[in-house]
Amino acid sequence: MFEKRLPHVVLFTALACAGSFGLTSCSSSKSENEISFEQRIGADNAFGLGLRFDGEKIVATLTDELPRDERIYVRVRRGKMTLTSQRDLDCAEVVRDGTMLAGVGRRGGDGKIVFDGPAVDSSIVDLLHLYDDARWATGDVPQATKDDVAASGPDPIVEACKMHGDEMSAKIQVNLAYAWDLGTRNPQSGIHPMDAVTDDAGADATAAPLVDENNVRSQIEYGQLCVRELGEIPFFKKLGPGKYDTFDCRDLQGSNATGLTGAIAGAEGAMIPVTVNGVAQDKCSPGRELGPDSESYGCMDKADHGMYLAHGETQPGPMVVTARNDRGTHWVLLCRKVADDGKGMTRSTTFNDIAMIGHNPKTGRTCFFQNSIGSGKDGVHVAHPGDVEKSTSIWSSSVQSYCSGSCHAESAFVHSPWIDGAKRSSGKTIVPKIGEQPEFPISRLDAPYNIVAADQLGFSIPKQLVSDEVGACNNCHRLAGNTMSDFARWSTGTGDDYYSNITDYGKKFAESHWMPPRLDGVTEATWAASKFQKALDFMKKCDENRSDPSCIWADVPRGAFDNPRVR
User: Fold this and answer.
1) pLDDT tens digits, residue range 161-219?
2) Which residues pair with 451 in a beta bridge?
3) Three-class SS of residue 420?
4) Mind listing the pLDDT tens digit for each residue in 31-44?
5) How far is it, in rounded angstroms, from Cα 452 to Cα 26?
6) Cα 437 to the chain's mean position, in Å?
7) Which of 137, 273, 370, 538 suits 395 as a labelling partner, its CA being 20 to 30 A distant?
């Protein structure tokens, strides 16, 4: 009943006339039985069935009036959106558990027919802040929270079915954050910028301006905004407005949604190596093997170089990929926290932590993306964050901003011997590095750095330390956030929480003191009296007492996008 997945959906006894996306009015020769199943589902369905959230209740929309013998059913729930969850949505369940909307509705300011739907419980709204906790990045979230996410899912989901009797005529599924973005009106026109082009659907990033930088919540619209500001993300082949092929993080190619070649021009990636006493490893330490449900960053007893985020722990198998688009933006995709799905650590395609950064060194414009850690983990089908239907299968429903104020405080890309072990064919690091790429010169403290939608989404860029006493360090790069504290210690042979997981080989002076890049005659015996140690001591003093009058602070240059509200 409810749905028949035939090449063309059966003729209904009552015909509703579609007025968008090339499906014309009743005067057209195209009748409802000619509308395919594909045209009935998703945000660009033929009937304009859309979902918005006004902060209190769900609002459903249609392009034309709802026929008297048809009903709309709306359901709000918690779960996990997948690549196929919209297609597989069972309208029988939505009818059973949802709220029925009927009647003539009202004509909205954008010309659509609007139906008021159910209120949204605060427990569902609270899911938009689930990943605000920075402990997700370190794996230190309470186990009870992880268990709750595993059992109930991380996504606040809104879905609707337009029904004629027992038959589905249209259906849609979106996350609540995106519905909230769609429910936010442009105060001047009364029309959400998305509506002007795509009718509650994914926007064509070339038709700017579509998304308001000061009024965005969802990862989807943030992804579309970032494409507008930074250019397309080369990992994802564009299939249409708001629609992209997915990307295989292990094999570094498109997932072949169109049946065409999966090669991605310009993309280069590598596995991040893990070594023990200089010897590459491809397995976990005996007795520490990770199963398919593991969410650990590490499985090695000791390693020469560890991941700082995991206190020096590491594992074989993480991948990092880069590509530069035609606007000069460098994109980096990192797939880590590998769980062995039966193929072995270096072939597993399950990554519990997937993150992506886009940065244009000329303008400073930067975007950060983070997956739903522990649940958005399909490394074969990494979705474009701006893809309306696919995004939430990987990325969290709302944007996470905890990465900016500490780890990525002074620039977009962070380096260490761990991630810099992944090399391009040229021998340069996969992650763009100052001194290796012409756009990233050393000693450029005036290089612009600003984060798209920072004010709205809570991204922060702290002030940098510019006192003369730290010149030995900031003559190469800026000093802000963790660069002054944890990173400074870890890159100069200290930090017990890190070095307890490092081999004796990795603790050797030349290995443990990887900053500065050139020691220039400084040895283990002379380090304590060196200008570098003196700079470290001064950084520590300023980090512990930022109001010390000898500590001089300055804003990180924002470039043309300088905004005094970003702190």
Assistant:
1) 999 999 999 999 999 999 999 988 543 333 333 333 333 333 333 333 456 788 899 99
2) 366
3) helix
4) 667 889 999 999 99
5) 44
6) 25
7) 273
How far apart are alpha carbons 481 and 109 in whole angstroms?
46
Question: And the tokens for 112?
Answer: 């659509």
Pair of tokens at residue 514: 């990887």
Q: Are 557 and 446 in contact (CB under 8 A)?
A: yes
The enclosing H or E element of 276 equals strand 275-276
DSSP label of 229: H
Distance CA 253, CA 118 (A): 42
Closest listed residue to residue 302, CA positions, set 271, 329, 278 = 278
Q: Which residue has the tokens 């074989």?
A: 316
CA 473, 478, 481 angle in degrees (round to 5)? 105
Q: What is the CA radius of gyration of the chain?
A: 26
Query: What letters, b where the CB count within 10 A reaches 16 and e where it falls short, cover 477-503?
Result: bbbbbbbbbbbbbbbbbebeebbebbb
Neighbours of 433 (CB within 10 A): 16
How many CA atoms does the CB half-sphere of 384 hold within 13 Å? 31
pTM of the predicted protein model:
0.88
Give yes or no for a contact between 159 and 89, defined as CB atoms under 8 angstroms apart.
Answer: yes
Is beta strand 238-240 parallel, antiparallel or unpaired with respect to 243-244? antiparallel
Phi/psi for 544 (5° steps) reads -80, -25
Q: Residue by residue, what is the 3-state secondary structure of 357-395?
A: EEECCCCCEEEEEEECCCCCCECCCECCCCCCCCHHHCE
End-to-end CA distance of the chain: 56
User: Do 310 and 290 contact (CB within 8 A), yes or no?
Assistant: no
Report the run of H or E that residue 509 belongs to, with start and end. Answer: helix 509-512
Give strand ranges (E) for 302-460. Answer: 319-324, 330-339, 350-359, 365-370, 450-451
